[in-house]
User: Fold these one by one.
Assistant:
Number 1:
Amino acid sequence: MAGIKDVADRAGLSIATVSRALSGKANVSAKSRKLAKTAAAELGFVPSYHASSLASGRNHNVGLVLPSVHRWYFSSVLEGVSATLLDAGYDLTLYNVGDQAVRRESVLNDFLLRKRLDAVIAVALVLTDDEIQQLLAIHRPIVGIGGALAGASTIRINDSGLSRMATNHLIQLGHTRIAHLTGDPALNQDFKLPGIRQAGFEAAMKDAGLSIRPEWQISADFTIQGAYASARRLLGMGTERPTAVFAASDEMAIGTILAARDFGLRVPHDLSVIGMDGHELGEVFGLTTINQDARGQGALAARLLLETLDAGTPAGNDGAATDREYPTELVIRTSTAVPPA
Amino acid sequence: MAGIKDVADRAGLSIATVSRALSGKANVSAKSRKLAKTAAAELGFVPSYHASSLASGRNHNVGLVLPSVHRWYFSSVLEGVSATLLDAGYDLTLYNVGDQAVRRESVLNDFLLRKRLDAVIAVALVLTDDEIQQLLAIHRPIVGIGGALAGASTIRINDSGLSRMATNHLIQLGHTRIAHLTGDPALNQDFKLPGIRQAGFEAAMKDAGLSIRPEWQISADFTIQGAYASARRLLGMGTERPTAVFAASDEMAIGTILAARDFGLRVPHDLSVIGMDGHELGEVFGLTTINQDARGQGALAARLLLETLDAGTPAGNDGAATDREYPTELVIRTSTAVPPA
DNA sequence: ACCATGACTGCAAGCGTTTCCACAGGTCAG
DNA sequence: CTGACCTGTGGAAACGCTTGCAGTCATGGT
């Protein structure tokens, strides 16, 4: 293992100059820089991150905390964050904490706080005030995506308003018997999102003077297969059926469409389905949905952090904790139409 | 930020003793240990990872290199690796290099080699001999999953044999007009898998004396939507149709089933479809497939590395580079049957 | 001809741990 | 009673860089 010392010797320069040359700092003559670079290349020298982090205080490493890596939204965010960080020369440390709160705590205590991360991105994770304070106390900027993080910057979509919009789309088509497929209660603990979307749905229904039937408020785990099972239960209930379903995610909307097909229901003729996300698979099913660019949200979060870090806001100046709304769009495809006569 | 020095002062011990006490080393009296621990807790002390890594040479950090995070196989592996590492107190650094080889190189040079990783897991990535040698030269164990890594340990399934098995399943049912849906040529660069699976298919066909029609050898990008489009093309060709399709992944098999439904073809009555993976969604479609436990493969890879690291095989003793085959099982559901009369 | 200026460079002091080593007491067999 | 040993402990040397500081040497204005 060649160290910087070896490079210095080989190049006939001092350690200090080599360090400056290789890290692209100013005040190094072109000649020295070239000398250092060739020597480093010849020796296959790569600086030790630990040593340089220790000495400089910057780690070039951002932590990403996710509840899942399988669900579309999260893997999309991950993709956006990852690409942005890689291009910027930053490492991405992933904490896939799962839905269980158990692991969460240990992640926070044992990992996040160990000053090895320059910043943290938390997705759909409601951190307690204490937890946020701990992180900010260490002078680590935090950005939350899709979750409300008091005191930290946040990127999110207007979940409540968009749910209203989706519901209104169905109402305007003339539907009155509308079901809502939301997230499982268990998912509502950390990730308050299901509740918020559900509230938007209820508000829109109330505003339109429509009644909400409890038996048409069903839940699933945000996966296609989970929603498929729930939707089969909904559609097979034997009593009157809804003419439209608003699913809290595209994956769940797709599960609903698959269930409808199994029952011989034509979408949208017999059943309208609207989702929310912008899943790539939506096109195959002609799914009407609200497009939120999850990948873009991840990329934006990463960019924001990098700017903060590069701006050198060296310590704790968390800047103004901005709360920005990410743009979305209603994409009308062929899964929604007027209700059957 | 409290340092170990502060803890030592508060506990009335020396830095050395505190360090030993907190990291659970021997030769510390019970009293001193308790003293150190309470002092550390009171000060909210957390050791600096960089400093301790620098001093001890162990980073407690494993790198995972993936070509994608969206496709089922990869996110499943990721999940397995992540859970195992988190439980062991290790960090996971994720390199989502994408399908483009461009980013790959930079990841290798700029990231992997910076001695900040204790080990590397590479999924479906064919590293060149040089690249492997570089890593091994740094004394970092590597485990490859699903890809042939000369010189490194590997976990994989018998892709060629399993493809044969899948194809034979169709042949034994009486099918003779069998199509194969493989990965896009672009994906075959790094990730030779499509070619290997295709070879298995061809071998089985040849052994059975069946002819392989070039126009029934189609490809897609391993996603449902991509396979859906390709399968529509296949099924809509107007000429004679295949009676069965072997798709190189479950996601592609599902895309095929969706396309078949669009054409009014009943699965399995009019068209048998077999996949390969064990995707959770397979159940919804009654998909016959070969179950490979991707999550388990990831977990196993992580466990193997942890053992190697903990065994203290301190440097370069790469152990015997084992190449182990992960167990799989043929899961027969309802997407395959005898061909139409 | 002289000094201020600025571009380069090297020395050495950290960065915050881990760990080698020496050393102080106490235990125990001979 | 003594030397061999073991358990705990603290001092201090790494670990491999970054960076403040001071010093060297041309340069150019006056």
Note: Residues 3-5, 15-16, 19-20, 23, 25, 47-48, 50-57 of chain A lie near DNA strand D (CB under 10 Å from a C1').
Number 2:
Amino acid sequence: MIVATETAARPSARERLLAAADELFYAEGVQTVGIDRIIEHAGVAKASLYNTFGSKEELVRAYLANRRDRSTGRISRAIEGVQGPRAKLLAIFDAQAELAASPGYRGCAFVAASAEARAGGCVEQATDDYRAWIRALFLDLAEQAGADDPAALGSQLNLLYDGATLSARMDRDPTAPITAKAAATALLDAAIKPSGRRS
Amino acid sequence: MIVATETAARPSARERLLAAADELFYAEGVQTVGIDRIIEHAGVAKASLYNTFGSKEELVRAYLANRRDRSTGRISRAIEGVQGPRAKLLAIFDAQAELAASPGYRGCAFVAASAEARAGGCVEQATDDYRAWIRALFLDLAEQAGADDPAALGSQLNLLYDGATLSARMDRDPTAPITAKAAATALLDAAIKPSGRRS
DNA sequence: ACGTGAGTAGACAGGTCTGTCTAAACTCGC
DNA sequence: GCGAGTTTAGACAGACCTGTCTACTCACGT
């Protein structure tokens, strides 16, 4: 088994391909960007791509898996230093605001990929995985926060999160997560009856 | 000028092309569906398409304009029989719920088209028009409802509306607008201080 | 020095796409 | 009937796409 040069001096062909795919697929769309653009941007030969991934679809799958890991990792990191479920929930929107304000932001990669892919393909599966993770996170934190109806609160906050994603993309408005956070605050206040101690 | 057969017995070639484009573009995507599929589904010759619209891009533009007119018309109809701005705002979500539960629903056509098109094209312009109309509607009703901060409330409700659109599509969950309506109710209660009369 | 294996450049096949063009068929007022 | 304009079917051009294949280069362990 040859596992050398994994994190060697210069990035391997696989890493350069993944980096190029991430950049181009996200910026212009999975369907729009062709293989030739990818390999040109990565600086590798076409045969290297097909030796490494086997097909474009497999490259798309790897691109989405990479996006999922980075997104869930970013959110996890954003809330891990925050104390209390209520503050954690609001910190999710702060992290989203920071992301939406970063240059080159074009909305959720899964929404874009899903709009281009046909139903039932590998894109749909990756999308379902990613969205299930976020949904579970909102539900978990809503339970921890002591909501009267955690499922309802979690869904509502998730809706705000999705809406901010969509608006930031479609309206090119990086302040959408800020608006969502304000609405989330109001929903939290309404959904959590203070049981003894005040905020 | 020849303007006969506008609404004659059998639909004109233009109408059949538009109907075919609406069905196929919405179901499978603007980029994915080719000219040949459109003309086959419409039952017209390729030359008729290019004589009528001139290019595929122009057909896409007509498709989106048609979608916009039907969407804004549907929303206008849904709220025109409802008394009071608060009830009108909630009726928007009822209309959305009905739409999301209809067979073949695949989310917002503009979101899908925007994900496929390149930035700056005619799709972006049509999308901006449509979204500006909805944004103005939410702002107008929030003002009429007497919100303390109409701009904030309008944006927040718009965010819920967008989130429900996205979730209904991505999660294949037609109940998302119902969830959004519940959240909208809570936001309305929090944003409108009762000034004299009760609900 | 040499063989091995990975990477490279690029031609190529087979398919699909948009858009043009030709020639035949059809419609309809007269 | 007839002639003018419209519609039709389909071939075609030119571009682009994915994926395969050949031949060459280069690093490297032994």
Note: Residues 13, 44-48, 51 of chain B lie near DNA strand D (CB under 10 Å from a C1').
Number 3:
Amino acid sequence: MPYHHGNLRAELLARAAQVVADQGVEGLSLRSLARDLGVSHGAPAKHFRDRADLLAALAAEGVAVAEQRMAAAAVEAGSDPQARLAAMGRAYVRFAVDEPSLYGTVNHPEVCRVTPESVTRLLAGWIDAIGGSAPSEGRYETATFVARMVGAAEVAADPGWRELLGIEDVTDELIDALLAA
Amino acid sequence: MPYHHGNLRAELLARAAQVVADQGVEGLSLRSLARDLGVSHGAPAKHFRDRADLLAALAAEGVAVAEQRMAAAAVEAGSDPQARLAAMGRAYVRFAVDEPSLYGTVNHPEVCRVTPESVTRLLAGWIDAIGGSAPSEGRYETATFVARMVGAAEVAADPGWRELLGIEDVTDELIDALLAA
DNA sequence: GCGAAGAAGTTGTCAATGCCAACATCCGAC
DNA sequence: GTCGGATGTTGGCATTGACAACTTCTTCGC
């Protein structure tokens, strides 16, 4: 057993994602994480200042994934601003559905309080897209768009809502319906 | 100093609401609550089985308040089903904005995992309203409606979003824009 | 009145956790 | 080589949730 783990930071994040996936953010503990990886309880501190710092890193991963998906969708959608915007919205909802753990972490109140800039980064992409797209018809255009996005993702990502609403499998048709203006 | 506090359960809930309001759900601790109220650390256990039980009670309060507001709004809106539904939507968003602490508790992941039925109760009111109102135009009518509601409340209740979107004061006009079909 | 039963509160304890400090080991630059 | 920083370990402390045993008060039947 080598003294240096060699890849601890990455494995901490990976294991943390697993734990969050099936126990939620609240079930995450630095010490149990260390146990899972077979290192001492003080080891994680060398890579993450504290629990909040680890969660922030996990959230940053989530944001990066979301950004990546949205950017890819935008590229694929071509040059029409309206089409790009719609594609980004779909990509965001898909991200929420496909990676509920990451999505849940990014949007977790405990995490948002510490790093509110995460969401800001995501929004920046939308704002850009909106800014370059439609002339503002009402004063609340941006807010309305964001609300649609947030609501669609929240409902589509939550198994409880899905069961309640009878939308077990999230089709493109459903997403479009949720996002439809 | 009387041995029996006399009103401990209610005061625990009240103080808990305060703490949640300015420290979030994560900042809530049974022991500090007991200290705040001048009782021993074991006292809360006589009224709430554990921390989750207290949070569930707090969430139940929140759901009750929301239901009450929505019901009142529905009554005031008269008999037209469409108008009643719209009024309930507005009332829900107003609830989220006026009582961010209760709203946040009801929708907190930690709480939702334990008592998913809270949201179900709220939805029941909407479903009723919807069921009695419009003929279904698409297969996802209910889901779309719920997504709008959830998104509007989420955005309107979050100071971070509000600042980002430049919608500091939540007017009726804004709410209608967020909910507009 | 009174005595028992139960509700409400207290005290003590235990394991888990987050965080910190002191120490050990390994690696790379010079 | 050796020295310093990065990485890991160990020990310790305070806080917390949960539990058990005990005390005090209230209530209700008689």
Note: Chain A touches chain B at residues 24-26, 104, 108-110, 112-113, 116, 119-120, 123, 138-140, 142-144, 146-152, 154-156, 160-161, 164-165, 167, 173-174, 177-178, 180 (CB under 8 Å).
Number 4:
Amino acid sequence: MELHEAKDKFIQAWGAFGSQWGINRSMAQVHALLLISPDPLSTEDVMEQLNISRGNANMNLRALIDWHLVDRVLKTGERREFFQAEKDVWKIATHITRERKKRELEPMVRLLGELKQTSGSNAETKAFKQMAHDLHDLTSRIDAVLDRSTRSDVQWFLKAASTLLR
Amino acid sequence: MELHEAKDKFIQAWGAFGSQWGINRSMAQVHALLLISPDPLSTEDVMEQLNISRGNANMNLRALIDWHLVDRVLKTGERREFFQAEKDVWKIATHITRERKKRELEPMVRLLGELKQTSGSNAETKAFKQMAHDLHDLTSRIDAVLDRSTRSDVQWFLKAASTLLR
DNA sequence: ACAATCTTTCAATATTATTTGGAAGTTCGA
DNA sequence: TCGAACTTCCAAATAATATTGAAAGATTGT
């Protein structure tokens, strides 16, 4: 396959994949573009290559910086900023995981913790409390794991599971 | 907190959570409603309690059945169907994981496998191939783990990680 | 076979999310 | 301080997605 075709497929696929996971298509595409670019790109480069507006490029670049997936880079003698993606897939995975944990998992754990103390003891309330309890237990365990596990723990787990269990 | 307030909060939160993860709000809300209901509900019950149309209720119930998150139940002497959610949180997690693996992860692994063989050897192509290779490696490891890991493996991992690493 | 009751489909509509593009803001060097 | 070069903001436009509701399709008991 030719490079430009492959790049294009990758950008499209990453965009589609992202939008199935609640990340907007452009943000995922900008990320994809930076991921496979050997050098940092300017806002204009991103606009051109993806055919998106300046505002859109800017907003998504900022969001990616927020997520720690992209860094600003200054080139000496250049006024404008350049952007460069983190290329280490483990760091990418970690940053995405941490960010979503903070934004989505933690609030859910907190809510479930409250809900499992709902007052009452009829069948309906019992079913509700049981579910809140079980979900709280699962989500808080996951939360704890994400807090404490390191890259090497996860690598070990993935390796162990994918070889030992073969 | 009162039951009806708690139920409502849970349904809203589950709906919002779902939509951040690419699952539509109604599907997640129907799921939430069934999760906390001690008895199976009919389509009409779902329509009333969530204020959604018949078509919408029906479509999302079918989708939940597809995902193996909800079962049809027949009550003797009743013409219509009732619906009941799987209540075991581990089974819920497993079914969601398996389904998303099949729909999203597997196609991505396949694509990356192709892309990492792109022809060429200049800096741009090399950067691209490297990224495709790294992502393929990560995603296929995750894929392998999801294939082989059982409930008890995961429970063990979560427990070990959340207690030993404390 | 019919009527009653329930389920499914789908085109129209409504809602929500994303994108645009121009205006305002910022920074830097002369 | 000014103007050039760039970045950010945001209201309006557009696009994508979800929902409705009425009609068609099934199924069951008589």
Note: Chain B has seven helices and three strands.
